[in-house]
Each structure stands twice: as C-alpha cells, then as structure tokens.
Amino acid sequence: MELRDEVKSQFDKAHRLAKKFYDAGDTGRARIEYLKCARFMQQLAEMSPPDLRPDILERSRKFSEIADGLKEGNIEVFTSGVKPMEPVPQSTHKKDEDAARRKAHSLVMVERPKVRFADIAGLEQVKESIKEAVVYPFLYPEEYRYFGVSAGGGILLYGPPGCGKTMLAAAAAAECDAAFINLKISDIKDKYVGESEKNLREVFAIARQQEKAILFFDEIDALASERSGSSEGHERSLVSELLMQMDGLETKGRVRSLVLAATNRPWAVDIALRRPGRFDTTVFIPNPDRAARRRILEINLAHKPLSGEVDLDALSEKMEGFASSEVVEVCQRAARIPLRERIKENKPRRQLTQADFEQAIRSMQPVLPAWYQLSLRELSRTPEVEMFDDLIRAARRYIRQ
Ligand SMILES: Nc1ncnc2c1ncn2[C@@H]1O[C@H](COP(=O)(O)OP(=O)(O)O)[C@@H](O)[C@H]1O
Ligand SMILES: [Mg+2]
User: Are residues 180 and 124 in the same domain?
Assistant: First the structure.
C-alpha cells in the first residue's frame, strides 16, 4: 500500500472510532481518537502538494479543537469548527429524541467546502443542470416563485467511481454559500428497528437549523431494501422516511435545504426512488474526456516542477478510459519518482519528465473497464432503468473503444 493510503486508512479508522466513542458517551476515548485524527491529517498534509496543504492543515487544526472541546465537555462535533452547544428546548422534545439528536450530530459533518465549479474539469453541461436545480433556487428564490417553478425535489448523481460526484456536490454548496452536510447512508443505518429512521429525521433537523444547506447522501443505493433477509420491511420504511423528509423541505415557499444523492451502483437504487417525481433530476457523471483529463493534469501539476518536454496532450491521450481520480493519482506517482531518487539515492533535485509520467501511467490499473462491464450486466436485468439511459449508452461506447 502507498504510504499516503496507509495514513488515510489510519485516519479513517481513528475517525470512525472517535465517532463511535462519542456516540457511546465515552468522551475520554473519543478525545484520544480525535487527537490521532489531527496527527494523521498533519502527516497527510506533509505528503500533499503545497497547494492542498493549507486545507489539510486546517482540518488537522479543527480536529485538535474538537479534542480540546471534548476535554471541556461542552461542545458538539462539527468539522466546520466547534460550536457551543445550543440548549434544546425541553418542552418540545422527549428525552429519547434528545439522545437521537446528540447522536445525529456526531454522525453529521457540517462542512463549508472551498472547492468550486471552476476546479472541476469538464462536465460543463452537468454543472449547468446542477446550477438550475440547486444553486439558482438559493440565489434567486423570488424568480422561482414568480415563475411558479418549484424548487426542491432531489438530484441523483450517478456514474463511475472517482469522476467527481462528491466534488460536484461540495462545489454546489460552495457556489451558493450553503452548509454542506455529507454523509453515507451506512453512517445512519442502525440495526435496531426504527433507529435508522430516527437518525435520518435528525439529519434533516440539523439541515433545517442551517441558514441554507445542501444535504448529500452518498451511496444512496445502500438505502434499498435487501431482496432477501428479514430487514426488508425495516429498510422499506427508511426509503419512505427519506421521501417524506424531502417533501417536508418544500413547505413554507422558501427553500432552505436541497437534497443531492450519489451512487456508483444505480442498478441497486431502490425502485421507489427510481420512479418519476422522487429525484426530479438525474445526472450521469461520465469519466473525463480528453480535454477534461488535460485540465485535471493542469490543475494537479500547477505547483510541480515540470520539464519543458512534458507533453500534456500526449499524456491525456494515453489515459483514455481513466477515472478522474486516476489522472490525479498519476500526477502523484510521477512526482514520487524524482522525490524518491532525491531522498533515497541522494540525487540532485530534478524536474518531472515525460518518462516519469509514462512510468506512472503504466503502473496504474484502471477500474472503469470492469465497472462499465458490470453496469451493463446489472442494468440489463434491472427493471425501470430508463432514468439511467445515459449510462447504458456510455457503457456501450466505453466497451467498444
Ligand atoms: N471532474 C474532475 N475534475 C478534477 N478533479 C476531479 C474530477 N473528478 C474527480 N476528481 C478528483 O478525484 C477525486 C475523487 O473524486 P470524487 O468526487 O470523490 O469522485 P466520486 O464521488 O465520483 O467517486 C477528487 O477529490 C478529485 O481530486
Ligand atoms: Mg464520492
């Protein structure tokens, strides 16, 4: 495993444990795990390109703040910072709902992303439809009211892994200056009957506390009822709860929260969510075309020492079929070649060469061929897949080339 991946996975583990201990009310151990999170973030920052470092260091600092706050025992956990706990009005909430709310707070990350649409390569049409569905309703609510165009509903982003779904959702929040609430469905699932629904209600309650919020449900396929197994009825009601909560956001004529969902496994998305009117906008996020791959190279090489002979066009051509995240990875791997020579062999500093990139490209094993094959296979035996037509077309093209 790459060192960076190793640190990331250690971070993920500490983060998971921190939330778990926090949930269980064990703030002492939660604090230790949050301190570890801060340390791993710092290590990650050291391994990252200079342009990414400030953001990562900022996250590291916030984890230290959270840990400090836990010592004081008077804060709630937000990645966007540490907020003093607001007193919950006792008269309107039962005790167990308070407990659920505290728990939901610890599951939920309320972020203020910095990434903007301009940082996302390609996907111009996609950005435009997201603007219409998400950004403009926030920016021009009177116009939507005047023309009687309803805002709200939901947007479902689907497509191959590593091609910008999460990034788009975060950028959408940044574009309209909304809080970004990002969670995986698996984070809110609970084995006890009724608990998952309660978690989901609490997540929406947190969104409603924000001035403006974008709720992003990643891995929305995990919401689906499993075909076998006894939990079917239970999870069916989780789907209903989501639809009910989404309907609830439209009241009062003022949009304050919008819902985005994403999946790499559209065939597994619950059929109830696939029917018209549930997710009003369904957007396919394809793998990057040549121009987009070139742009991703430019973005990621902006602060790296490049030799004049490096031919970005030729490299973008060679990365046909790569996911965006794999193009980013190629930049990292290429840069590590002269870095290693410098550190381990004490060679003089040198610029990145075309050969470094070619070696990096050869070392990759793109995941999309298998993913597109799987999509075609799965979608061919899934009912009501009209909304995923774009994927079927893209998969046929991808496999033919
Ligand atoms: N369109 C894009 N332009 C630039 N970078 C991208 C793009 N899509 C993905 N990336 C890079 O790949 C990483 C993973 O993307 P992400 O949005 O998490 O993919 P997904 O959610 O579709 O699996 C991002 O953090 C970013 O570095
Ligand atoms: Mg993602």
Answer: yes
Write out the two tokens for 255: 């949009």
Q: In what order do the strands lie in the sheet with 281-284?
A: 110-111, 179-184, 213-218, 257-263, 154-158, 281-284
338 pocket-lining for ligand 1 (C-beta < 6 Å): no
CA-nearest of 336, 335, 339 to 348 is: 339
b/e code 295-328 from CB counts within 10 Å (16+ = b): bbbebbbeebebeeebebeebbeebeebbbbbbb
Residues 276 and 318 in one domain: no
Any ligand 1 atom below 6 A from CB of 263: no
353: CATH: 1.10.8.60
Do 135 and 255 fall within a single domain?
yes
- Asked if 137 and 258 sit in the same domain, the reply is yes
* Same domain assignment for residues 127 and 275: yes
- Asked if residue 162 and residue 143 are part of one domain, the reply reads yes
Ligand 1 in contact with 170 (CB < 6 A)?
no
Q: Which domain holds residue 73?
A: 3-85
Domain contains 102: no
Give me the residues near ligand 2 (ion), CB cutoff below 5 Å. Answer: 165-166
Question: For the chain, how big is the Rg over CA atoms in Å?
Answer: 22
Residues 131 and 272 in one domain: yes
What the block records as the tokens of 205 is 């309650």
- Report the separation in Å between the CA atom of 161 and the middle of ligand 2, taken as the mean of its atom positions: 7
Give the 3-state secondary structure of residue 283. Answer: strand
Determine if ligand 1 sits within 6 Å of the CB of residue 368: no
pTM listed for this prediction = 0.74
The pLDDT assigned to 152 comes to: 67
Q: Are residues 315 and 276 in the same domain?
A: no
Residue type, 47: M
Mean pLDDT in consecutive groups of 10 residues from the start of the chain, 401 residues: 82 89 81 88 86 85 81 46 41 55 66 94 92 86 85 86 96 94 89 85 90 93 63 68 83 73 93 77 94 97 96 98 98 97 96 98 97 95 86 94 77
